[in-house]
Design the sequence.
């Protein structure tokens, strides 16, 4: 847009000046404040986030059970199950490329 074209646009729309009036009256001042509102989805997400923060990342009871089973030799890993899970993870990585 050319700078000179601004005058032409101003002539088309007329040159009306906008005058802002501010009332210092307390009632009208309160109506000009910004407001924030959150949707129910946002509130639900905040509740879920707070619930997750209260849950520990490590389930210590399960860790202790596995450590005890490995220590006494009763923990057995199926080689076939391990290989299946390993191949599934490998396939998943390849499909992401």
Sequence:
């Amino acid at each position: 847009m050319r700078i000179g074209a601004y005058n032409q646009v101003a002539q088309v729309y007329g040159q009306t000046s906008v005058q802002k009036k501010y009332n210092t009256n307390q009632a009208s001042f309160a109506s000009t404040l910004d407001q924030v509102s959150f949707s129910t989805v946002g509130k639900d997400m905040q509740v879920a986030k707070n619930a997750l923060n209260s849950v520990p990342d490590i389930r210590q009871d399960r860790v202790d059970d596995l450590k005890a089973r490995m220590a006494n030799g009763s923990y057995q890993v199926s080689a076939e199950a391990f290989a299946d899970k390993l191949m599934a993870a490998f396939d998943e990585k390849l499909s992401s490329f």
